[in-house]
């Protein structure tokens, strides 16, 4: 058993659990501050975050952090490679269905200008020397890709700072690097969507990430949830409860899960595999479908 330290804390609307393996266990103390910094940059519920200032700027240039520039570049790349299935400009639609208030109980609400519209104009976003200019009417939501990127950046920071291994779980999105606690592959449980808190399958990875998206959480009113179909502009109506994707990074895994809520399972699997992901899809009737390449991760 390798020396390790674990910490847990609330952040980004959920629970983070961070594991550091090796001799530099003091690194664990920096994890919460690192994630808090990113949350304060990216949260749409913080009026002075980079994302909120960009959304309020109505076409004016805004100076933002390097991390925010990276996030926005990933948003644009992900939108292109998924042919628009992943769309970070859906914020006006999320507010329309009732997702304007933080789920943490803080009472903080998202504010966007009257000019905000969907779909936004990603192709004309300008990024240069830390200054970002969103076209008027375009607003961004960091959402799942922000959570995945936060896990990527924290795990990278821990490894570069001397950790021999690091595991970052961000509300169920998990990024793994280096040595595990037992010296073997990292073991990660896939939650049963019908029995929260229990796992129905375990997978193992050495380096990489797994992300899960669910239509059974973050629900609003009648049949509304936060997974918006960019074909209709409404909550996805496909019969999917959850989709779990293994990919090289947490950010990419998060993006690829959205494909499962756009297409029927077989078509979704084909595209996710084409984009170098492996997927497990659970339908609302309990039926489970796995991509052919998922089997190599089953513990």
Number of helices, where a helix is a run of at least 4 consecutive DSSP H or I residues: 7
CATH level-1 class of the largest domain: Alpha Beta
Number of domains: 3
What is the string of helix and strand elements?
Answer: EEHHEHHEEHEEEEEEEEEEHHEE
Named CATH topology of the largest domain: T-fold
- Per CATH, the architecture of the largest domain is Roll
Query: Average pLDDT across residues?
Result: 94
Provide the helix percentage: 25-40%
- If you compute it from the alpha carbons, what radius of gyration comes out, rounded to the nearest whole angstrom? 19 Å
E-strand count = 17
What order do the strands of the largest sheet run in, or round the barrel if closed? 1-2-6-7-10-15-16-17
- Beta fraction: 25-35%
Low-confidence stretches: none
Question: Span from first to last CA?
Answer: 19 Å
Give a short account of the largest sheet. Answer: 8 strands, antiparallel
CATH superfamily membership of the largest domain, which one?
Answer: ApbE-like domains
Helix/strand/pairing category = alpha+beta
Shape: globular
């Amino acid at each position: 058993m390798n020396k390790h330290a674990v910490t847990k804390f609330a952040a980004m609307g959920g629970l983070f659990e961070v594991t550091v393996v090796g001799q530099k266990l003091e690194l664990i103390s920096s994890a919460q501050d690192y994630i808090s910094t990113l949350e304060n940059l990216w949260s749409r519920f913080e009026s002075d975050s980079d994302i909120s200032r960009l959304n309020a700027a109505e076409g004016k240039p805004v100076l933002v952090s390097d991390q925010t520039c990276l996030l926005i570049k990933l948003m644009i790349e992900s939108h292109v490679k998924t042919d628009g299935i992943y769309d970070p400009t859906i914020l006006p639609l999320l507010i329309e269905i009732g997702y304007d208030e933080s789920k943490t109980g803080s009472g903080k609400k998202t504010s966007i200008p009257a000019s905000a519209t969907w779909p936004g104009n990603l192709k004309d976003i300008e990024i240069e020397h830390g200054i970002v200019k969103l076209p008027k009417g375009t607003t961004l939501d960091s959402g799942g890709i922000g959570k995945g990127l936060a896990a990527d950046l924290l795990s990278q920071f821990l490894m570069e700072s001397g950790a021999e291994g690091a595991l970052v779980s961000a509300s169920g999105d998990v990024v793994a690097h280096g040595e595990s606690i037992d010296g073997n592959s990292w073991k990660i449980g896939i939650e049963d969507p019908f029995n929260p808190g229990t796992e129905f399958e375990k997978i193992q990875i050495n380096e990489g990430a797994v992300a899960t998206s669910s239509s059974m959480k973050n629900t609003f009113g009648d049949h509304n949830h936060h997974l918006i179909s960019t074909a209709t502009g409404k909550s996805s109506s496909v019969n999917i409860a959850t989709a779990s994707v293994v990919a090289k990074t947490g950010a990419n895994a998060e993006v690829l899960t959205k494909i499962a809520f756009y297409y029927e399972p077989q078509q979704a699997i084909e595209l996710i595999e084409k984009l170098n992901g492996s997927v497990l899809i659970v339908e609302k009737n309990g039926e489970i479908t796995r991509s052919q390449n998922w089997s190599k991760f089953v513990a």
